[in-house]
Design brief:
Blueprint: E1 9-23, E2 26-38, H1 41-54, E3 59-61, E4 68-70, H2 76-88, E5 96-104, E6 107-119, E7 122-125, E8 140-147, E9 152-164, E10 167-170, E11 173-176, E12 182-186, E13 190-195, E14 204-210
Antiparallel strand pairs: 1-2, 1-6, 3-4, 5-6, 7-12, 8-9, 8-14, 9-10, 10-11, 12-13, 13-14
Helix pairs in contact: 1-2
Length: about 220
């Protein structure tokens, strides 16, 4: 079965700007300055360069509980040096796009751009082709059956999942589902089916999760 268009992965780009502090011969995390998420590599890099060009990197100072953000402004030549270093920086080209650590006395500024490939949450009826449970068909899956809040676990099972027209088979277990029951999940990761138990009762949840692959000896 071909993947449904709603199951497509997309790239999420993150811009991280942090203060580091010197600890011995290494740099250690000190304070976060900025974290923003973007849809494209180009937008992320453009925003990073604009942020660097402004040259303002607040740092919390003062006693714990009474700290306030003090402005730290880089002089023009330092801003230009940081911007040049960022443009020349390289990552692994996959998850780490660029990273630079720019020393400023006993501290350093870290500017980093990362990329993560993720799938968005999908909500569909069981009979719909977009049903995210279908993305787990043929894969090793863990099933947890529980009642929603206070999450009373009723049973657990594990096996290869087969999605049928009106239900699923997990190993030797067969479970029927109506075609209009709602399935919510992240394709290729997990999917949950909520089955009503009547008025004033919390629904019965069937949570299917991709099982960890077996490790070799």
């Amino acid at each position: 079965m071909a993947p449904h268009p709603s199951w497509r992965f997309h790239d999420r780009y993150d811009l991280w700007v942090d203060w580091l502090e010197r600890r011995g011969h290494t740099w250690a995390p000190h304070q976060n300055v900025l974290h923003r998420t973007f849809r494209s590599r180009e937008d992320t890099l453009l925003h990073a360069e604009r942020f660097i060009s402004r040259g303002e990197f607040p740092m919390q100072r003062g006693a714990k509980g009474m700290a306030s953000a003090a402005p730290v402004t880089l002089l023009r030549n330092r801003r230009e040096a940081l911007l040049s270093a960022f443009r020349e920086a390289e990552g692994d080209g996959v998850t780490l796009i660029r990273e630079v650590q720019f020393p400023i006395g006993e501290y350093a500024l870290s500017v980093k751009v990362t990329c993560e490939r993720i799938a968005a949450e999908v909500r569909a009826t069981f009979g719909n082709a977009a049903n995210p449970l279908r993305s787990l068909s043929g894969k090793p899956v863990k099933l947890t059956t529980l009642i929603e809040h206070p999450y009373d676990v009723l049973s657990r099972a594990e096996g290869t999942l087969e999605v049928l027209e009106r239900g699923v088979r997990l190993g030797t277990q067969l479970q029927d589902f109506e075609g209009n029951v709602t399935v919510t999940g992240v394709p290729y990761q997990h999917a949950t089916i909520a089955v009503s138990r009547g008025l004033l009762k919390k629904p019965l949840l069937y949570r299917y999760e991709l099982a960890d692959p077996p490790t070799g000896d």
